[in-house]
Amino acid sequence: MRFTILTLFPEFFSGPLACAQLAKAVESGVVKVDLVNPRDFAVGRHRPVDDRPYGGGPGMVMMPGPLAAALGSIPEPGRKLVLAPSGAPLTQELARELAREPALTLVCGRYEGIDERLIEDQDLLSVSVGDFVLNGGEAAALCLIEAVGRLVPGFMGKEESGDDESFSGGLLEHPHYTRPEVWPEVEGREVPEVLRGGSHAKVALWRREQSLRRTLLRRPELLQTAELSGTDIDFLRAQKRPAGLGRGLTLCLLHHPVLDKSGKPSTVSLTNLDIHDMCRVSRTYELAGVCFVTPLIDQRELGQRLLDHWTEGAGGRANPDRANALRLGRMAESLDEAIAQVTREAGAAPKVVATSARTSYRPARGRKEKAIAFSPSAHVRRWLAEGPVLLVLGTGHGLAPEVLARADAVLQPLRGFALYNHLPVRSAAAILVDRLLGDSW
Question: What pTM value is reported for the model?
């Protein structure tokens, strides 16, 4: 496989290409690496390769001319990539895809970046090695060359060496051990007995379970895309996990003040389904609870009778699982009372996070519409790691402006870019909680 690297600093690669497996692969011809300097294709006395950005701003931008000429000099460029923090993430799956190419050309940016016209004209695939910024694309190019090159037949020596590793099956790799069998300098540090027993089946099972356990503890978000069997899920379910962020999250279903379809403040009636389903969501995701808010005395009494029936009455005796869920439900007269309940139970006042399918609201009659500054789920997760959060959802046609105005944050709307955005509130609650917590948090 041939890698062609466009870089202003070819000397950056002299050391890495001359050591370890990469050097052996180059020496044996499994991998070939060519270095091309765009400055060699620049024109003028000083051979400039960068200039100031249009629109102003700090730094310089790499000019398209020298880069285009450098790309044009490559006889067989193959698939062309540019290393950039704004690119698609370099994953093991992408590495496998790129390893099937006969040739790759890697463009290493510098300064503030590369003129976008070159990227569009040359159809460059932007690839990022992580959510951080480097001084240039050279270090990122080395990461890509190693990740892709080691999947090329002959690079690793033993072909299966690249198959049983972290991310290869969507999971982190299991632990490794070697001699000595007992580490004498550290008491009790022995190689696990199953690895010394000689049973290949037991070793394979142990490694699979260790891989699952390590992924659950270190990178649980990977489990959402990993290929798991029923046996895997049963194993994961039995594992002890640190207390999740859900313990600090309380749902709040507001029936007043909310808007009616004409946009006027109103009060909406309780529904049996909302109470059942939102309590079940809270139980499934191990939340602190769910509060149903209405200023109407008869509605609160009705809600409490429903909760009592399914927790202390005949409903609870007939369906213990439902009772466990509905014990998380409670009634409140106002949002202030809901906040006070959480404060008493958690020992600290919660951050109030509102939800809205709208993108703006009118703070008061006669005032201009105010755009909502939405917050991502990660922002709310950081709050959950520090203390309680009250997630407020509105019935009717959404929360009234005074609720949005007093919230510490407003979550980004579900299907916010779609033309139709009218989910039932209990469905929205389930989706929002899953986005916040899922199986990862």
Answer: 0.80
